[in-house]
Amino acid sequence: MKFGVKIMPREVILDTQGRAVEQTLKGQSFRLDSCRVGKFVEIDVPAATEAEGRDMVKKMADFVLYNPLIEVYEIQRLG
Amino acid sequence: MKIGVTRFPGTNCDHDIWSFVEARGHQPRWLWHQDRFNPREIDAVLVPGGFSYGDYLRCGALAAKSPVMNDVRALAAAGKPVLGICNGFQILCESGLLPGVLVRNKSRRFIDEWAELQVEQPNPHFGRGHQTGARLRLPIAHGEGCFLTTAEEMKRLRGEGQIWLKYVNNPNGSLEDIAGVTNDKRNVAGLMPHPERALYDWMGGLDGGDFL
User: Fold this and answer.
1) pTM, rounded to two decimals
2) Which of A25, A43, A59, B95 has the lowest tally of Cβ within 10 angstroms?
3) Per-domain residue ranges of chain A
4) Domains: count for chain B
């Protein structure tokens, strides 16, 4: 069962990648108000139910995938 | 003292640290990231700088969860000294042994220069001769050295005297000019500057020698 973990920098953190991408897009006349860059991790787990799978992925996210001081995350069911 | 020196894929200050340990009359021993060691056989651990695991995911994050760090954690829990330098500092923060996190420099540039530091709270293990207020000059070389933590934890760090070193001229945007912190027991310490790169006149300075 596949899940995605979307990890985004907290609002208060300077999102350096987002700012760089935003500047490049604006510099080429694209119209946008803001741009933020995070990470997306796809994880395939041997789970019998969605609840079990989400629990497994949440444990992995809490273990290493994100740092609560600077990031937030959400888990999405894929496919 | 028998001093363990951790090595991860991407560690690149390991030989400098090894030489530093030998020069101070101690016996270094490599601690490979996938191996375990007996914390009773090692007196202290140094976590050198570099780009462990290529800085994948977040700097220090994957190294912090490697097998060798289980034993570094046990050694620290037994009260033995652990020092992280640069990427080693990032690893100790990610492992939970030190508070806070190191993020991209405010300037977004990699900074490689000499930095002036002030000792806030002398550490009983690393830099024993330091006095509060003493000024030191050490090289820095990092892209992610901006120290951050919550307002709550910052208050605790000030209250418990865990702020070890501060920059005189903040180069990277660190909260309250922080260059180095310790845990509450002060046996685990981390700093972004490189003491091992300031040991002899030909290196450009001598202030690193006191750290071991």
Assistant:
1) 0.96
2) A59
3) 2-78
4) 1
